[in-house]
Amino acid sequence: MKKFQSAAELSSYRESLRSGNGQGKPCLVICGGTGGLASGSNDLMRIIKRTILERGLADKISLRITGCLGFCEMDPFIIVEPGNNLYPKLTMDDVPRIIDAALAGTVAEDLLYREPGSMIKRVSEGDIPFFSGQTRLILGHNRAIDPIRIEDYLRTGGYEALEKALGAEDPGWIINEILESGLRGRGGAGFPTGKKWDLARRADGRRGKYLVCNADEGDPGAYMDRSLLEGNPHAIVEGMIIAARAIGADRGIIYVRTEYPLAIRHATLAVKEADRRGLLGKNILGSGFGFEIEIFHGAGAFVCGEETALIKSIEGKIGEPRQRPPFPAERGVFGRPTCINNVETLANVPYIIRQGAAEYLKIGTKNNAGTKIFSLVGKIKNTGLVEVPLGTPISRVVYEIGGGPAGKTRIKAVQTGGPSGGCIPASLFDLPLDYDSLARAGSIMGSGGMIVMDENTCLVDVAKYFMAFLKDESCGKCFTCRKGTQRMYEILDDITAGRGTMEHIALLEELALTVKDTTMCGLGQTAANPVLSTLRYFRHEYEEHVRDRKCAAFVCKDLVGPPCQAACPLDTEVWRYVALIEKGEYEEAYRVIREANPFPSVCARACDRKCEHKCNLGASGGEAIAVRALKRFVTDRVDPAVYKPVPAQGNGNAALKVAVVGAGPAGLTAAHYLSLAGYTVNVFEAETEPGGMLSSSLPAYRLPRDVVRKEIDSLMNDRITVTCGRVLGRDFSLADLFSLGHKAVFLAMGAHGSWPLGLDGETVHGVYPSIDFLKAWNLRGEQWARGRVGIIGGGNSAVDAARVALRQKDVESVVLFYRRTRGEMPAYEEEVEAALEEGVTIETLVSPVKIHARREEIEAAVREGVELETLVTPTRILSRGGAFTGIECVRNRLGDADASGRRRPVPVPGTEFRTPLDTLIVAIGERPSSTALGKMGVALDKGGRVLADRVTLLTNIPGVFAAGDLVTGPNTVVDAITAGKKAARLIDRHLHGLELETPSRRRVRPEAFIAPANVSDKELETARRAAPPALPVAKRRHNFTEIDSALSEAAARKEARRCLRCDLDFIDKAMIPEKRPAPPVKKRRSAKTTDAAQANKKPSAKPRTVSKKPARTAKKTGPDRLAPRNTTALKTAKKPAARGNTSVTGKKAGKKR
Amino acid sequence: MNNKQLDSIIDKYHDQPGGLIGLLEETQGLLGYLPEYVLRAISEKTGRPLADVYGVATFYRAFSLKPRGRHLALICLGTACHVRGAPRIVEEFEKHLGVKAGETTKDKEFTVETVNCLGACALGPTVVVDGRYYSHVSRRKVREIIAQTKRGQETGDPAADRRLVPMEASCPACGQSLMDGKHPTEGRPSISLEFLSDGGGGRLHLSSLYGSPVAEWEPAPPPSSPVSAVVLCCPHCGKEFESRSLCAECGADMALLRIHGGFHLEICTVPACRGRLLSLIPTPAEKRT
Questions:
Q1: Nearest to A621 among B138, B244, B288 (CB)
Q2: C-alpha closest to that of A416 among A434, A391, A389, A396
Q3: Contacts of A377 in chain B (CB under 8 A)
Q4: A1111 pLDDT higher than 50
Q5: How far apart are CA A284 and CA A278, in angstroms?
Q6: A1130 pLDDT exceeds 60?
Q7: φ, ψ for residue B149 (rounded to 5)?
Q8: Which residues, 6+ apart, have CB-to-CB distance to A419 below 8 Å?
Q9: Do A379 and B120 touch (CB under 8 A)?
Q10: I want to staple A211 with a disulfide (CB 3.0 to 4.6 A). Which of A249, A263, A365, A888 is the partner?
Q11: Which of A52, A313, A451 lies nearest to residue B80, judging by beta carbons?
Q12: 3-class DSSP assignment, residue A120
């Protein structure tokens, strides 16, 4: 290996490389960085090599193993040049097909990248929004370079900048260029690099000077420095030599953290290689300038990112920062002048020197020139490294490049700057990403970590996380930092464990400000940022934790308890009835369900299953327990008569009359519980039969009418009178209700109005609001849809309308037009599938207002044959002679996110198209029909919703309560039931003159112990989620027969066995029955979930079931005044609990393997 | 570890200013942790006060004063992993192994530790067990990871493993085959080379499956050589194999052999290093300069 003696030699070698062979043949590019290797890219490389070798393809195809390519979410992926076709998430079996396609000059269509959600195929890397939104000045080179081959770096123009820098007579020219470029330190603080170099240059260098590359990337969540050092180490080496030349340094150190073994290897290799080639050493390229680099392994201390601490660490000491001045530029490593630059800063240097400062200034904004690499991670769809010009708005990075939230949740905040940074709420996502804007928002740029947080992230927990980190990483030199971070952590721990008070929050804030003001180094001064920024933007979360003992994100375990129960708005003990099903105790299971929920059979079919979404099994990579299917199993099997509550007698309440307006789930629930408390309740219903949306809107194939009727009948008693066909505002007024002797009124009329499209011609014959259309069929059997039917909307009511239309006799086809993509459709995915299967077409990216429907609905619809047309917005309603003839739509693309966090559809001009139709159903959302209420003086918001207090449910009119869809707008069945339950409790308190604003705390600790089943590892691993039997498409497309049926007993019990029994993590140990020998609780827990082998070894530890609920009655006598009146109901619930105690034990123990 | 080894490490770092961290790192690399007697010995031999040595050894997270188990599971607690549920992964490891993070199981099989960030943030939650990365770890996956680690790396049938690439090697200088049917490894002829080291020389039989770590030395190279390079030459013409690039694992010279189809196999000349590279890219223009 020959050393380059001069710049000319290097130059000509580079030219020879560029003209060399290897050009023109297809090349497979694959990431061999840490991320790629962790995802299995190594196996793919081997298969590629093997295939090329075996088939003798060396002249026809090549392979390049590179560092990080940035799109880590898609790892392991291959990019095939020259078409830059990106094939994501590959397996070994896919490789031969990709090679064949590359050889043939074609693409392997089905393996190509598709956008998640819209499934739009992208043939070339440049068409993928993740890449097209970026400016990859620095990171872009990674793709062209095998980091262990200097030739690759040279071919891309490597070391050209060095030639230029060495050629300059006066090294001051380099500093000027960097100063003019405006380059600021990419390590976080943003100090101008040119200024730093100038200071170092002026320092006395007679004893030598050091240039240190800080690759101690300690910020958790940031990995761009690793990727640069791993993927393009020569760029860092070149940047260092140029910097050294500029400041006159003779020795260089790359300080890499030991957690980055591959970066260490590649950096070491690059330094050796550069040395071998004469690019380092005594007389670099014959210029007379000498510089050496050594690699130093950081041993894992966050504080060593601070420059004075880093210097101490290099000197082999404890990494404690020291007071400045003297600054490192004067006294640094071993007392010599030292300049410390971050990896990314140095990676920018060759670019600036090669292209010139003027060119560099064109990128970014004023005072913030150039690009910055961010590691976009956390709860985001496209995780990876993103390089954008400084000044790019956060929203563009998060939504356009990042693709928005990973799941169906909303993004809440991004955290930037690591433990020294802060959280920026989604409302500020217009903020440009530059040093100054981030600082103003209470965060910092930091090294570029951008951790996206969604609704399932608790910001108090995040603050606690950072404080736990900082208390460990504080070097301990300053008292306020050492004790302050410790104490802040303790306070946060108290708050997250439910021990916090409002005073804690105030103390936390005071403490944070003190730590900020009284510490010496960067770590201490910024240590308060995670607390201060979350307090600034998310104080309500802190308050919720303290006041309501609630963690809405379900993160703070001590406040949540078993997640299924916590997720249920009705506080149903899901885990408990699942466990009872496992034991075969179906009647008891029914009582558990019924005690929380007066509409068990309805919810067994129409609940949106919040419990399943929070199930720990699903959250931990498995499939959630099929709770709704289990509920259906129980409610289908057990006679509701096993739970028969008896209204309270003789408490004087019978003389008090309450009026309920609206006989939907909210109104009937309230009436039911009020009647149990002894009140006389009059219910007024506008339609011809009670049930509200349950009977008028929900299609019978999802919820059969007789189920609704039976359930409503079982709620009735002689205290309740339901009067149908009576409309508030038409037939009677609020004043009438009071003059008839009602002491309180509960308004629960729901949301039965439809939002109009706002287009001309909406009133022509053939255009119907979806609610009217559904009611006409459900209540009166009228078939309005005919011919070609178009549905506008993407929510459940749109999908319901589509599937109902499909079942009407004169319908030819059904197309659903939606303005976003299918991935964003709020409908249940299964339902949409089903609809499509049944014959509905869906056009997406089309319509204008927000809708609520659910995924399974979408799936079901698609399966039934509904066609989907997405990304389209209707622009005109076409009609001839007063009759509807079709619609004109414009195609959309997805733009920035709107307030709901979903990406806004942006119309693409010139893409208008017409669809001839015979019927149009507008299902873009429902709203309350509340004009009459407004006339009676009830305060409404702009959408016609009643303004009622969130806590007391009181409207502006005394004695008038309101809840349910009327207040919230269209919402789920279970939320309506919850609203009714709450209204009953509050009306009861109101009528007895009691305080309404009581904190409603949920039960975290289980009130019963049910022994877990013995489930073997194998069973846990192989058992799949139970799916209820469903009617095949052919048998359901043209009728309203219920599609799903109940699980078989065997399937239900098998399903129940999969439950992780999270309740046992929270149980009061005293409730667990004594055993011989008494095993510690922990053992039992492990036996329950996984370690069945261990449990099997000890036959003495056979499961026993004991239920006791002493706390329950006691607690209910407290704030919930309705319960004690309802004692009969409670007693019936209690008795079999005792029975279960004996029978289950015997039965189960005998059966056990 | 014997005193001689420790002495040689101390000597290596002795004249390096600030070499203490490197010294501790290398010592721990050999022993798995830093026992008290080693800290005392280092203090005595380097002349740095024991308090200093102890201070540095306890300040940095990378050092452990407690023995670690045979397997080390590092669970990343970086912010990205945290928001994706890493604390639950820690709990799961603790539950299955019956130890707390930072502890070692009684049978000395497993040590569970947390780490601030592994820099694989896009793939979180991330766990590294014995240097092997696991991405998108879920609670379910934890059991598999533990079981797999206990079982050891997959030891399937090399002939059936498509990830192992069969090679036919020859000498780039004399062109003669290096394949040795008399000394098969993994059911195939081995690649047979001659080696020379300070303590003498012998034969090296490499597996002819690329991706297999099998390498048999006859006789075993002298103890000093694991860290230093040997000379590898052709058993037919006796010529030392040319070195074109440096080992990506350890930075030492690589010896270049020819493989059928016009490719090259480069193997690291340090016996303890497993660095090998099947290069599909012909290194161009070398001869010209």
A1: B138
A2: A434
A3: 79-80, 121-122, 124
A4: no
A5: 6
A6: no
A7: -65, -40
A8: A219, A220, A302, A466, A469, A470, A473, A523, A526, A527, A529, A530
A9: no
A10: A249
A11: A451
A12: coil
Find, among A15, A60, A232, A99, the residue nearest to B284 by Cα: A15
> What is the per-residue pLDDT for A962?
96
**pLDDT tens across B136-145, in order?**
998 888 988 9
Asked if A619 lies within 8 A of B78 by C-beta distance, the reply is no
Set of chain B residues whose Cβ sits within 8 Å of the Cβ of A60: none
User: Of B264, B285, B280, which Cα lies nearest the Cα of A19?
Assistant: B285
Report the 10 Å Cβ neighbour count for A724. Answer: 13
Alpha carbon distance A663, A689 (integer Å): 8
Cis peptide leading into B282, omega within 30 of 0? no
ipTM here: 0.91
- Structure tokens belonging to residue A140: 């872009």
Residue of A5, A47, A49, A207 to mutate, interface with B, max B Cβ within 10 Å = A49
CA-closest candidate to residue A47, choices A65, A69, A25: A65
Contacts of A849 (CB under 8 A, 6+ apart): A755, A924, A925
pLDDT band at A1097 (very low <50, low <70, confident <90, very high): very low
pLDDT at A1075: 63
**Which residues in chain B are closer than 8 Å to A317, comparing Cβ atoms?**
18, 20, 52, 56
Q: What is the mean pLDDT of residues A86-105?
A: 94
- Do residues A844 and A821 touch, judged by C-beta distance below 8 A? yes
How much of chain A, in percent, has pLDDT values that exceed 70? 89
List helix spans (H) across A127-192.
129-132, 150-155, 160-167, 172-181
CA distance readout (Å), A224 to A260, A263, B120: 12, 11, 10
Interface touch A53/B263, C-beta < 8 Å: yes
Tell me: pLDDT of B227 over 70: no
Selected residue of A51, A317, A614 to mutate for chain B interface (largest B Cβ count, 10 A): A317
Fill in the amino acid letter for A992: H
Report chain B's C-alpha Rg in angstroms.
23
If you average pLDDT over each of A355-369, A615-629, A1028-1042, which comes out highest? A355-369
Question: Which residue from B minimizes the CA distance to A20?
Answer: B284
Contact A824, A853 (CB under 8 A): no
In the three-class reduction of DSSP (H, G, I as helix; E, B as strand; rest coil), residue B203 is classed as strand
Residues of B whose CB is below 8 A from A473: 116
Give A1149's pLDDT tier (boundaries 50, 70, 90): very low
Residues A788, A869: contact at Cβ < 8 Å?
Answer: no
Residue B127 clears pLDDT 60, i.e. is over it: yes
Which residues of chain B does A49 touch, with a Cβ-Cβ cutoff of 8 Å?
165, 210, 278, 280
pLDDT at residue A804 greater than cutoff 60:
yes
Q: Which residues contact A371 (CB under 8 A, 6 or more apart)?
A: A135, A136, A137, A138, A363, A364, A387, A388, A389, A390
Please state, in angstroms and rounded to a whole number, the distance separating the CA atoms of residues A266 and A215.
13
pLDDT in tens, B161-190: 888 888 999 998 898 999 998 998 888 899
Which residues are paired to A1029 by β-bridges?
Answer: none
Mutate to test the interface with B, among A1, A54, A555, A1060 (most CBs of B within 10 A): A1
Look up residue A449 and give its two tokens: 């970590």
Cross-chain residue pair A2–B289, CB shorter than 8 Å: yes
| Residues A20, B284: C-beta atoms closer than 8 Å | yes
Per-residue pLDDT at A1128 exceeds 70 = no
How far away is chain B from the Cα of A383, in angstroms, using its nearest Cα? 5
Cis peptide before A1080 (omega within 30 of 0): no
By CA distance, what is A553's nearest residue in B?
A: B83
Count of pairs with CB atoms under 8 A, one residue in A, one in B: 248
Are the beta carbons of B59 and A319 separated by less than 8 Å? yes
Query: Are the beta carbons of B21 and A299 separated by less than 8 Å?
Result: yes
